[in-house]
Amino acid sequence: MKNWLRSSIVLALAAGALVGDSSVQAANTYDMTQGEFLTNGLNYTTTNTYQDRDTLIYKWDAKNKKIIGGNVSVGQDVLNSSYDGVNVNLVIDASDLSSMSNDDVKEAMTQLASKIKNYAETNRYRLTAYVQVREGLTASSKVLRSYQLEYKTPGWGDPDQEIKPDANVGDLAEGVFATPIINGAAGSEYEFDENGVWRYKGFRGAVDVNFTTPATDNVYAAIRTDGKDTGISNLTENSSFNSTLQMNADASSLADSKAYLAYSGTGNQVSVIADELNATVKGTEATGIYAGHENGDTTSKVVVNGGINLTLDGKKTTGVEAGKNGEVSLLTGQKIYNRTNTVSIESPNGHAVYAHDGGKVTLDAVKVKKADKSAICAEKGGNITLGIVSGLTDESISTDDDAGSQVSLSVDGNYTGQVKGNVNVAFTKGSTYKADNDSIGTVTLNGSTWDGSLLRDNGSVSINSNGQWNMGETGRGIKLSALTGGKTTASRGYVKMGSDNLHIGTYSGNGTFIYDHDASDPTKILGGNITIEESKPLSLSSTDLGDKGDSTAEGTSASTIAIATDSTGIDTTDNALVEKVLDNLASKLAYLNYTKGERNLSGTVELLEGLTSSSVTKHFANLTFDEKTGQAKRDSEVYHPYVTYITGDASIDTAYADAYNADTNTYDFNQDVFIREAKSTDSVWPGSLYYGLITNYGTEYEKPSKGFGMWKSAKPDDGPSYTIDLHGNNLTVDLEAFPEAKTTGSQPMWTTAAIMAAREGTIKITNPGEVHLTCNANYYYGSAIRASTSAGTTNGAHVVIENDQGNLKDHIVYLRGGIDTPGYQLDYRTIETYGNAKAKDITQENSVYIKGLVDIEADKHAAVFARGGWIRLGGGRISVDNYDALWTAGKGRIDINMLIDDDGTVKGAGSNDFVLKGNAVTATPYYGNKGTLNLAFTTANSRFDGETGGTGEQNLYVQNGAVWNNTPESYNIWSSGEVVKSDLASIATHLYGGQDAAHTGYLIQDSAKDLTIKNYSGFMKAYIARDESKSAGEDGTDATSQFSQKGNIIIEKADQTDGQNADFTLLTSQEGIDTSNKEEVLSVMKDLAGKLIYKEATDSENPAVHLNGHVGLAEGLIAGSVETRLADLTFDGTSDGTGSVVDSTYQIPKNYPAILYGPKETAMMRGAKSAMASTAMIWRAINNDVERRLGDLRVGNAEKENGMWAKVGAGRMSYDEGTTDFRTRFNEYHIGYDHAVGNAGWRAGASVSYIDGKSTYEKGTGDNDVTNFHVYATKTMQNGAYLDIIGRVSHAKNKYHIMNDAGNKLDGDYGTNGYGLSAEYGKRFVKDSGFYVEPQAELTWGRLSGKSYDAASDYGGGRALHVDQDDFNSLIGRIGVGFGLVKERSSIYAKLSLLHEFQGGFDTQYTAKGEPSNATHMDFDGTWVSAMFGGKYQLGDRANFYGYLEKTYGGDLKTRSEERRVGKECRSRWSPYH
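The chain above was modelled as a monomer; its predicted structure follows.
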């Protein structure tokens, strides 16, 4: 038959070895084994042909391993002229081969390739040739193998390579295979690489395995392992040109067969990598992909990548299965061009995905075309993690009750199936979930809706992107382990509350809980209560950061909650009704951990315009929480916000029609104004979008048909100018602008601001109360205030806030906001201007001018950025953590607390307070450099903590007690979130000190880098800390030995003021220095002098010294610390202008207060003195305390009683006179025993008391303890007269902690003994009614012994203050009169006394190393009045209650005390009191 075919072909060609003519050629078939073709071969020489592919037939002699047939040659002429060149197939019949093994096929194909020669030197690629094995030799015969031939072409990689006519056999281009893919199988059809992967790069192909012979393991798989890793990949090097591969495994003819596409069961790995693979599996049981190792302990794996379509046909079907020791997972690290990794499954009689016995399945997208009711199932510790699963409708997703079983996936579409067990299920945007959830996992709503309830406790719910959970009814309440809301307030989660109570273990994120209310009584809120145990900030993470996109940053955002109801049916003009509804909404919420000090949740109660996620808040109040119960409560102020923007055009601003005054082009507000809006979107138009709540877009406002924002105006000229007149009312603007991430291919490029001047014109705000501006964003370019236009304009865009009237602190502009998204925080600037390209001077620049004070807080972003443009602030507070505070770039200028002419010229410094924390620089990391900073710190309350520098001008005024602490600030690395210290090496272009010594400014040089002052004038004092571990240079030449950790201060030029030199004093703390040793002091001063360098003094051509320098020691390193030693500096004699000490000018300033002691009292001395005084006064106050017991004995028949008694008392005293200041509270515990002695009226006893006192001092606290032992006797005479005698021995202790203004500490701990004796005489005159009068006289003496002790300070590593306290002597005389009324079971009395202290003073000496001693004197003499009221009540035959209250008047010591006593009579020979 074959020979007949070949003969027929030859006859048809009419013989001829030259092929071609001038027309388009149809495909021809040539039998190269016959006649002229066998003898002479075939030469392609025809020009101008369009060549279809010819078929050239050869024969393979398997026995001799030889190709039979003539040669083919292709010349240069045909390849030069032919458009498509020459296309040929060289073919043999499969029956010629011994087998279809890869080795046999490749051997035959290699020899077949040698039959065609390419003799062209150029255009060699125009020859397209294939060598093939076919199943027959007809034109329609199936191609079993096809390899393209490759010829080397000059210029493609190697222009000098040698040109050869021979071909190489390239990659397999087409093939059909009939055996399983098993790496290592004998006679395999497949060629495996070193990883065991068969790489099929053909443009079409199939693996069609028809199993007809039973296997011993009953496994029939198209691809499987057999002791080695096995894989298949149909990806080419250029992954955008990949083929479709068809694979079939058919074991349906075998009984009880188990058929698979891919099977890994021997502890090895199968990899299936395909751009698109369509597979059909048939068997009694048909499974697409299986991994498991039932009889081993190693892991069997299947890894997949690309698009895999599984069609399963069997009585039992499974799409993807992982069993014991099995893992099916997605191949990581390889991305297929334009391909989502999707496994599509048609499993009509079983699971789509199944994991059991510890098996794991991890895939990306899964499409379920068909499955039975149990679509996704994990059992016996199986674990399934899937990406987006589509196609599910009512099929179940479940696990058994095994603790290790888990399913996690995201469902796309509308789903009504059962979710049961341990399942984490998320729903994509727009999806709906309508069923109760019987899982302990997490339900996540990503912009989706769930109608249903949780049937089990301790599950969790996550709701973001305006998703909504409409809670179903369980009748038992719902208990969540966690509920997580949206990342932002504009993409928050919503919960529509049902009747069930909702208990949340941990709450984070942003959520709104919506309630219905009774239609007839809107104050009746319908639905269960919400209880939150703890709240946490929401964790955030950003990836693909850094210059290479390989960094990740972590962060958090605050958690918020809103409790809301629809305003329908509520008369919102009835303020009382609105407040009642909001109160009842608040009553629905409790935050339990608030009672434990947790403060991680803020919230509101709101009335909405509707009950959907798009509803607008029309009325709201902030929430507070009860510190004892955690119950939420409404804050007193209720806000009624506007919920849209102002554009400056009344025809657009219809929401503000009532406020607009057309005559003055003014928006007049006669009450507080609140403008609030939260915006997010799903898709954002590419390009820049602007949005603001107070803008001047006017009629140029345009909102894109998709997304959110305003187009960047193409007509920036002639924008509206208008005024907002607040008439003394407050203004609050709150804009929350949050686009969804990566909706424009990267992150959305929005530009947002609470106030935005975006066109030529001025937005002016006049007569404000307080102004609160907030804008929060999540990716690009947010500000509280921004002035910028899309192109240059004649006069610029301006924002002006006139808050400089009256008390400036009543009109502060508070600016807040930022970006919480890690890696994007630096895109926020609280105030920003952009340059105006057409500006001719500074007044035409885009500008922001706040005339009064601002209060700005920022974190991880700049607070003020003049990116071009002009920003003017009157002063206030700017505090930035973890980033620079002020930026300029280009012609940008920032003026704070400056006096400016109308033309923009600086006149000088203002007089407002200004506090700045954070660096102020004229250089930015990404937005350019240069610009000008003019900053004035001109009050004692002003301070700058940070560094300054850059390539522009940095002009600083530090005067009148203001402080510049030149210290490194923390800096956030945007790409990683790491916070580091950044030391800039400050440069001040001009530094203006005070006008004289009395108005000096202060500088603390805390940077390790040099501070350069290019131009200096005025008076300043600078402080540099010493390293006490390093010794001073002997002659002062080693100027860095003690100060090397801090940079130098370099003054390049000093300017005179009114003919007077500038003045600069350099100071360090005297801590650790023996200031009585002049040589040691001078040595330190000489080292310190080396830190000041004055360059102007070294100018060889025009030397000038316009600087008076000084060096010295001060009490501490706090600005304003008093100097204790001083000397002058000279800058002569050094080549670089380094300062040197003039020894002869060394001096001790007059009347300096030392740190611990000195010519006058320091804070430490005052504190120690007050502590000792408090101890003395407690001791004195209870010196005759037993006298009150003796008085009680004279009431009724008490003097006839014998026994024990006890009392508890409390008191307080205060003293604030001169430099002694203390306030003391104490408790007294007293127990005693007394007994009648003889028959002469005497009674004697003894007692012990303990006083526990707590004292506070000017800056400190103390514990006062006094223990007393008393002996006493009293004699009562027949005529009513009495005599009391009391003796006492005491031990008093005090442990105190004192601080001074600098924060230094002093700790003292001492105890001492005391003695006392008192005598009292009086006489009682009694009436028959029981009323009596009792004149009295008493004299009390006492002595508290002196004490010497050391109090430890933290100066110099713990230097001691030695305290030597003298004895404290007291002699108090008292005269008084008592009045009382005695009844059968009770008595009351009052006593008024006049007291005088005849002694009452003591001296104290203070000494410490290296300082002269000092002393203080305290005198507590004086006269005062005491008033006492008390009584007794007999509780029973054996019990009495006593009590009194005493208070003193007059004198410097104020006291008040009270006590309670109980007595009980016992049945013994004595009657105890206790």
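Residues 1093 and 1138 are 4 Å apart (CA to CA).
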